[in-house]
Amino acid sequence: MSQSGEGSVWYQREIAISAKKRGCHLITDDVLHQVPEIQKIKIGTANVHIKHTSASLCLNENWDPDVRVDMEMMMNKLIPEYPLIDDCCRVDMEMMMNKLIPEVVKHTSASLCLNENWDPDVRVDMEMMMNKLIPESTPFKHSCEGPDDMPAHVKAAFIGTGVTIPISNGKFNLGTWQGLWLCEHRNSAGKRTLVVTVNGCPLR
Q1: Looking at the chain, which terminus has fewer C-beta neighbours within 10 angstroms, N or C?
Q2: What digits encode the pLDDT tens for the residues 63-94?
Q3: Which DSSP letter does residue 105 get?
């Protein structure tokens, strides 16, 4: 399906990813192969949504497969299977689909999130809690880039590497206390690069 208008074009496809065993799997090539329209886009975004509530998507390390093994180990450690968990608990998330700005951080050991913008102690507390939940002392298999690298991958996966912010009348439409964070998870990281892609109707 495609739709064009005023210098933009939209494509949408539903694709199938073959059944996988429990764990983290690299599917970049699967998506590129099944959505050839990506090759027709000069500047744009690709929003990938999974239509299931027991699987998820994230951007992370694509080179060392040990990262995916360590990721599954940490998720099972942080969120163990307990038989008494109530199956009917859920959180309803609203997705804003009009006038969006996807912001993507092009690193696998840093992340972006929207959170408190007033009290800087919130960011200090967040870092403390992330280090408590994902300690560097964990016996990760992927350790060739230093003891803070694999914990950084886990933190980036949990928090995310992109956010979508609605725009209204030329401004970010955020809550009073919301601000965009770059969560740096490495001890000695270099410069981080953000890609900001704006899509929407122009102000008249």
Answers
A1: C
A2: 888 988 888 888 778 766 553 334 333 322 23
A3: E
pTM of the full structure: 0.63
HSE, side-chain direction, 13 A CA sphere, residue 19: 0
DSSP string, 48-96: ---S-SS--------S-THHHHHHHHHHHHHS---TTS-TT-----PPP
Distance between CA atoms of residues 112 and 194, nearest Å: 10
Distance CA 195, CA 180 (A): 14
Q: How far apart are CA 45 and CA 112, in angstroms?
A: 17
Q: Which of 151, 118, 156, 121 is nearest to 134 (CA)?
A: 151
139-173 burial, b at 16+ Cβ within 10 Å, e below that, comes to ebebeeeeebbbbbbbbbbbbbbbbebebeeeeee
Apex 114 CA angle, 201 and 71, nearest 5: 115
d(CA 159, CA 112): 7
Q: What is the pLDDT of residues 104-146, one digit of tens each?
A: 556 666 776 767 778 888 888 878 888 888 888 888 889 888 8
C-alpha–C-alpha distance, residues 128 and 68, integer Å: 24
Alpha helices by DSSP H, the chain: 28-34, 66-78, 121-133, 149-159
